[in-house]
Specification:
Largest sheet of chain A: 11 strands, parallel
Helix content of chain A: 10-25%
Oligomer: homotrimer
Distance between the termini of chain A: 103 Å
Largest interface: A-B, 70 and 75 residues
Number of domains of chain A: 3
CATH class of the largest domain in chain A: Mainly Beta
CATH topology of the largest domain in chain A: UDP N-Acetylglucosamine Acyltransferase, domain 1
Strand order of the largest sheet of chain A: 8-11-14-17-20-25-28-31-34-37-39
Number of helices of chain A: 7
Shape of chain A: flat
Structural class of chain A: alpha/beta
Radius of gyration of chain A: 28 Å
Amino acid sequence: MGTRLGQLVERLGGQLVGDPNLEVTGIAPLADAGVSDISFLSNSKLRAQAGASGAAAMIVSPLDDAFVAETYRGARIVSNNPYVYFARAAQFFAALDEVAPAPGIDPSASVAANARVDPSAHVGAHVTIEDGAVIGAGAVIDAGCFIGRGAVIGELTHLFANATFHARCQIGKRGIIHSGAVIGTDGFGFANEGGVYIKIPQTGRVMIGDDVDIGANTCIDRGALADTIIEDGVKLDNQIQIGHNCRIGAHTAMAGCVGVAGSATIGKYCTFGGAAMVLGHLTIADKVHISSGSMVSRSILEPGQYTGFYPLAKNAEWEKTAAIVRNLAAMREKIRALEKTIKTLTEPTKPTEKI
Amino acid sequence: MGTRLGQLVERLGGQLVGDPNLEVTGIAPLADAGVSDISFLSNSKLRAQAGASGAAAMIVSPLDDAFVAETYRGARIVSNNPYVYFARAAQFFAALDEVAPAPGIDPSASVAANARVDPSAHVGAHVTIEDGAVIGAGAVIDAGCFIGRGAVIGELTHLFANATFHARCQIGKRGIIHSGAVIGTDGFGFANEGGVYIKIPQTGRVMIGDDVDIGANTCIDRGALADTIIEDGVKLDNQIQIGHNCRIGAHTAMAGCVGVAGSATIGKYCTFGGAAMVLGHLTIADKVHISSGSMVSRSILEPGQYTGFYPLAKNAEWEKTAAIVRNLAAMREKIRALEKTIKTLTEPTKPTEKI
Amino acid sequence: MGTRLGQLVERLGGQLVGDPNLEVTGIAPLADAGVSDISFLSNSKLRAQAGASGAAAMIVSPLDDAFVAETYRGARIVSNNPYVYFARAAQFFAALDEVAPAPGIDPSASVAANARVDPSAHVGAHVTIEDGAVIGAGAVIDAGCFIGRGAVIGELTHLFANATFHARCQIGKRGIIHSGAVIGTDGFGFANEGGVYIKIPQTGRVMIGDDVDIGANTCIDRGALADTIIEDGVKLDNQIQIGHNCRIGAHTAMAGCVGVAGSATIGKYCTFGGAAMVLGHLTIADKVHISSGSMVSRSILEPGQYTGFYPLAKNAEWEKTAAIVRNLAAMREKIRALEKTIKTLTEPTKPTEKI
């Protein structure tokens, strides 16, 4: 299956330079693309490679188009953001290959009598849907998922196999929850009485907006009393932990293994590199970017890129420098002593000593 | 649903100052509490806010009571530890709302003929319980859980949906295992023969005490030959990894994303901040507190708070200081050279040179 | 159940010194072994303890044999690598105890009509196997697992309960996938258009070689366009995250909580300590060893041991040294100033100043 270039441009926009009847069947990187593929040039530094590409057509920016046109013989689709165009074209081709899950409820699923499952939704094998849960139009609940009492799954949202979505939590439209993710588990809240922990019931919910993606084996805790909030367009990768009562601002993205402790408030349009950690009760402004492996131990009120990880070294060097790091206070003392001595040496002799 | 204040105090203790017939239906923080809520003052610094709270009743300590009584018009429950009282009151209200799962086995569950499930236990949809497993009185095994051969689940212990509890492992009374947790998976044990790994069978168990909570997607490895031990009252948050043959002492708590390598022995009443990591074969004393994001690379034999993470900075500053960290040995050499030079400058000239 | 020593040596090799008819039923460490156990001496430093062991037989290296023979009265099995011999013997004893899962498909499983399940394979309760999937001879698919469309599970590979193996991915022979692992979830790929993320479909696969072990709750992303590759003999512990389009070289081992960002290429025979992190698009040579808790932020082209984590300290000391780390640039300036001053003091006075 494939499409003609003219049809693609009609659907996705861009200016076609070439034969609209040319058939293309997929999308591939510059070096790998074959005669029935589209490719894309999203980085001007690579434009010298475009000429050598075997792609039938190339998505290029207006800035690169003249350069590419000189060496590249295939068709061109000129678009202001070739990488976004690539994403949309890839979605188009993927949809052609996709087997749409059939509407209806698999006979092996356990669906409570008073749950409301839209007739256009798909509910797979061994799914459990409890009392009062609502599954929206076109939603897909794959095999082995659990949907708790009163939970709400929005239109066109897709839960992959073995995801768990607990009672009373909600997710909006066009969301994706990947396998093994757990939404709405209890937050980690205890009162301590003489060393023994007394559980504080976690009665809040997780409220998730539209167009949110949640990665495999990621956990989001329900709020203690109030709710945990994930705003529209947030993208969470795999193995992430979001504590109770956090708020993650719209269009913020977090890479794998990030941890956010409870009651952190994170702004919009932020990015978090893999394994970044955020302590509890902090506030992070909009457009803050945290590098991978960095520990955020204080609130950040200004946009910008922040980093904090120990630089890697050969182990022998690390052992040496780590020992010095441990003794930095002593090093500082030595410098202070040197400064004092030198001050004595360079100061003009005092009058009283002259006598 | 709710309760009268008199009934609450009868059940939970504390001294009531106010109308015992006042109806309350829930519990909320100072600022959010409404006319049918109880609130609590667990931090004396906030006592000025108590007067403005709309709560029907307030839990206060004896120390704060006189101060609060001056401005706050509602009823007061005086208790030595208001936060613990709050936890117990919250448990009371949560129990009123809770839908108790019906005793019995869901028809879709697969329960081995010789497994012993107490008639008062609940076994949900699509659960698998293998040969010889024992499910105690009042235990709740939610949908999609797996209980392996010969495993033992104690009285009133609750496994949330899609938890996995492997063969021969045991958990005591009143425990909680959250969704996606995996108890008793194989430890990571191999012998290396010419670069190729030969698996060492993991034949020990995981033995878990009473009142233990285990978070979502947390893993606890079974022992290699002996057992992995989790003592009474331990609280583990989500996404934690506990290696084989570890022992975690009673009433120790670990926040999300902590990792403990194999054969570590951790004392009682310890706390581990999120993403703290503990190397294998270490011993950690009782009452040790490890800060978030810290790597424990040696045994700790004295109680106290320990920390080790790289401080966060704006990326440009981090790049500068990280480069200096890498060259700390050179910096130390410079200081030594300076010390030497200054020693020469300040030493009295030697007699032989006088001639 | 057990075996006679003669039978064991016949099967596993080594030179027996002692009675071949002696019955042994298990294997245990030096200190714990009883009269029907084998033990092993894999570390010469412990050889003085061998004499006190109650084990019926001891696996020793040729180097330690003479020493052990002087004090230890039991039988000896002399082998060049006692730890590997121990692993193989432990496998032998574990197999005696193991209940082999019966071939065939549990009636509660949902298996697509055109999936091919070898008659010798075991498919447990509540398993879902989708269209066109292939389950090899002797494979074991435990309860609650999901196998997506067109996936291939090789001969003798074992998926533990509640593992998820997505469409079109493949694993070879004798593999192990532990509970909660998710293979072939979407990679984290987006194009950004004015702050909003556009999903890039992830259409590659995860291709896994023979003899690969994958830990509980570990995730491996499918490739974006090309495949994610896990070569033969790789061993991954629990809670690991492998990003899309990574390649992990043969016989590389990673401990728990490791994260590898997308498109990293990792060599053969590497080891990664727990919670080590690798940024995307890096290349790591063969035989590189990364210490626990270390962030790999650049490619590593030479074998060796590399480390990068902040050394642990008492919290009060950490606060002091972390403050100095933040100000290392200022400290460097002070040293430069001192060097300058001292240079002035020690330089011979210039002629022009003499006048």
